[in-house]
Amino acid sequence: MQIEINLNGKKVSIKVKKNEMLADTLRAHGVYSIRKGCDTACCGLCTVWVEEKPVLSCAFLSLKAQGKSITTLEGLQEEAEAFAQHLVAEGSEQCGFCSPGFIMTVLAMKRELKNPSDEEIIHYLTGNLCRCTGYLGQLRAIKKYLGVAQHEFCR
Amino acid sequence: MFTLKEFVQPKSVEEAYEILISGRNNTVLGGTAFLRMGSKKIGTAVDISKLELNGVKDAGSLIEIGACTALREVETHPLLIDHFDGAVSDSVKNIIGVQFRNIATVGASVFSKYGFSDLLTVLLALDTEVELFKAGRLPLDAFLKSPCEKDILMRLFIKKNGRNVSYQYLRNSASDYPVLNAAVSKLGSQWTVAVGARPQRAAIAMKASEALSNSSNRENPEYYANMAADELRFGTNARGTAQYRHAMCKVLVKRAIMEVLQCR
After folding, report:
1. What is the pLDDT of residues A86-112, one digit of tens each?
2. Coil, helix or strand for A139?
3. Shortest CB distance from A126 goes to which of B1, B35, B175?
4. Of the candidates B29, B98, B100, which has its C-beta nearest A41's C-beta?
5. CATH class of the region A2-74
6. B245 close contact with A: CB closer than 8 A
7. What's domain A76-146's superfamily in CATH?
């Protein structure tokens, strides 16, 4: 079946299998920022935005994406770079395999949460499991990126 | 991996129901979050996301939750944070991550009667009704006990009657499925004790609920918690044995009773 979606601001028409999940559809379409790290819909690596909300693309039926707006890391280069600079400054950049899903979640958090506490930031990121360079370094980077670095760290 | 032969997005519930019952393997799609983890052979997949069954609404003496409402909306909606002691909102907070909760729907969680559901347990302790297209409106407890028949869950209704409720759970790690969960509520002198993830679906501990309701002295919550653990059946799976769940049930129910007792 054919679906039409708005992918990173551009209308595209993609042929999909009926039981295909969005992660596979987008990868086949050349959107290589999307990775799959688990087979149980829990790692968060495949995070994309559907209608501006972060979702697991590995668990989202492609046919349900018909007519919807899909945003991937490829469509958020400037914001991603700005956040990546904070990650590097805190020594918490990752090998790169799971970073796209992690960054997509952080950028979504910036839009959704106003002046979040440490607890709220940590809660929002629970669905991103692979965080190899360390949770504290990443938390420092996120807080600086969100402009809430004055908040105290959790004990 | 699951398979599906046809995919339809009906414009009306009537049309959706007709398609649903026209084939043995036809199925209503929820958020599809759990679908990919099974190997279901679906004939026609009926996507009900175009039927305007999403959202949380204040309906006077009730709060209405549409079947297509995402769990994340349940978690963040002001109406659900402000009512039911925040327990409905709290109950879904630890289900995997935000990205998962933006997909998984209330309707799929309730209609599938998932044993591991956090939401079902707290809804069962509240005055919740389900509205099904064919079977009509019935209490959640009656729906959970009824045989699984083809139908379309449209909405949930929870009475805003000031019932106090406490939701407790035990998880091996944050965002994992619960090993066990419990919800205890009180309206006037009427108490309800519900326990879920046993790992069977949530059930009301009738004897413990009745004993709590009839007692004038509730200084020993442990007594009622033990009663609940003894009357319910528990099973063994990868997350815990029946014996462990029986022991933990006493702890969770006791904590929930103590928390409700503090509500004035």
Report:
1. 999 999 888 888 899 999 999 999 999
2. helix
3. B175
4. B100
5. alpha beta
6. no
7. [2Fe-2S]-binding domain (1.10.150.120)
